[in-house]
Description:
By secondary structure, chain A is an alpha/beta fold. Chain A has 3 helices and 6 strands; from the N terminus they run βββαβαβαβ.
Amino acid sequence: MEHLIIEASKSTPAIHFDPEQHLLSIKGQSYPENSSKFYTPVFAWLKEYLALPYLKNIIIDIEMSYFNSSSSKILMNIFEMLDESAEDGKSVVINWLYQEDDDTSLECGEEFKEDISTNVIFNLVEIPATRFK
Amino acid sequence: MNIYQFHEQLQSEGIIFCFSGPVSQSILEGMGETLKQKMDLEETKLTTSQKIFSIFVEQMQNIINYSADRNTLGDKQSNFGLGILIVGKNSEHSYVLAGNKISKEDEELLKQHLEFIKDMGKDELKSLYKERRKSGNNHLGSKGAGLGFIEMARKATYPLDFQFIDIDSTHSFFVINVKI
Lengths: 133, 180
């Protein structure tokens, strides 16, 4: 299976999905003009990955400093997909990374966590602030 | 009034940005970056600047996607909507104000949606937002799932302030002022 690598732009996050090391990460800001279009390859990749017969453990790191309302819906759809895999018996861990001074991001993570079943391990992970002060 | 007086008037009213014309994604990104830098320089509280940025993006994207006044350059990549957007600050609050032309049919739908959410408390808005965000709950056939205005209402400190100014029998000018 291919890697999925999309570099970050001002309005789109960096996406690094590595099916060999099983490292999945989405990091940055998300407010593209057309969220559905931007995330189409992400959904296609995840669909193929989650269907791998030998896949037992799924871990994804998400670090979003900002996302608009349509990206919020997309993220929820991704989490719903992962939730289904967890229901099918796979171990699913979502790490929601937020910078220590970023209460908004923490709150967003909490709101996603509330809407996902407890089959998924949803960690809220505080990381040091790198924002310029 | 000459241009200098116009400039001075905008300054004296605390207007940070006043944009009128075709809005595209690249204009949104450029202005958004500048807005963030300006708020950083002024040491605006992080949660406040995040709220202002978020409302700014939702409003600019509404103009791009829904303004009835459109410019196309014959090139499908260029999606422009005409509108006006003002970011300012007075002694009581900051605000992001947007205006654009809409059809009477859109006005009906939008009015219903805004009337429905305008007096909701923060908890009600949160539940509505989360309900609409789940898959299969698309609203108004909108690209943004109808979440944008709920998002703005959640970030705002004051109730959403909006009006529809009659232009002619087919169109109105929609204005929304979100105060933080």
